[in-house]
Amino acid sequence: MSRIRAVFDSLGQQGRKALIPFITAGDPDPQATVPLMHGLVAGGADIIELGVPFSDPMADGPTIQRASERALKWGMSLRTVLALAHQFRRDDPDTPLVLMGYANPIEAFGVDAFCSAALASGVDGVLVVDYPPEEAREFALRLRAVALDPIFLLAPTSVESRYRDVAKLGSGYIYYVSLKGVTGAGHLDIADVAARIPKIRAQVGIPVGVGFGIRDAATAQKIGAIADAVVIGSRIVEEIESSPRDQVVARVTGFVRGIRTALDEVEATAGGVP
């Protein structure tokens, strides 16, 4: 059983929801990344999404774009991201790790070489923003051949045939983009998310995490009541960006702990809405 599935199974038995924070590898500098990852776990993260810096992150808003720019100035590459994942895994054998990024670095690395290197580095899943299911069948099969979970995005504009396409290829969890726009955008429509999640679940048969636009404990609670996981990225990257270097891990850990507490409170009172 994969680490990702094991986490969702365990949380489901407890009536709890997964908290999935995102950071960009190499931001604010490469030496901070592994301590930040451990800080996320200490704050209550169940799964970590580790962003692979890219020069043209088309799905990301200005906050994560700046994080990629800062990381790239340090010379970060897919190879160095994998090295950081391996370093994290040496001290944490349990927390699932998902690489999130774009196709270009993977194709430059070589798909087969990437799959082998990701597995050896302790990665559990891969989400490639610009690999839609109709163009990613071979990539997904190569990932699954080495027991890595291919994770796909769905959006408010996705039609039900896309749900079925994702169900055939995806595993681990589905990342539902809660709004039209880029990461960090506002105008999250909770009612619309609540209406779509059951339809997605009925088609895909794996957990559904919701991200984009979740910036505080109150919103995380509302999403946690209707989804299997809450994904938070831009707000954490803002915390990294605004923190003094010697306080960045403590401040990020504290922020994540607040979200974890909020999620557990809503689950305790609502019984964990399936």
Automatic annotation (TrEMBL):
The active site is at residues 49, 60. The keyword Transmembrane does not apply. Gene3D superfamilies: Aldolase class I (3.20.20.70). It catalyses: (1S,2R)-1-C-(indol-3-yl)glycerol 3-phosphate + L-serine = D-glyceraldehyde 3-phosphate + L-tryptophan + H2O. SUPFAM superfamilies: Ribulose-phoshate binding barrel. GO terms for cellular component: cytosol. Pathway: Amino-acid biosynthesis; L-tryptophan biosynthesis; L-tryptophan from chorismate: step 5/5. Keywords: Amino-acid biosynthesis, Aromatic amino acid biosynthesis, Lyase, Tryptophan biosynthesis. GO terms for molecular function: tryptophan synthase activity. CDD domains: Tryptophan_synthase_alpha. Signal peptide: none annotated. Its EC number is 4.2.1.20. Pfam families: Trp_syntA (PF00290). Belongs to the TrpA family. The alpha subunit is responsible for the aldol cleavage of indoleglycerol phosphate to indole and glyceraldehyde 3-phosphate. Tetramer of two alpha and two beta chains. This is Tryptophan synthase alpha chain. The gene is trpA.
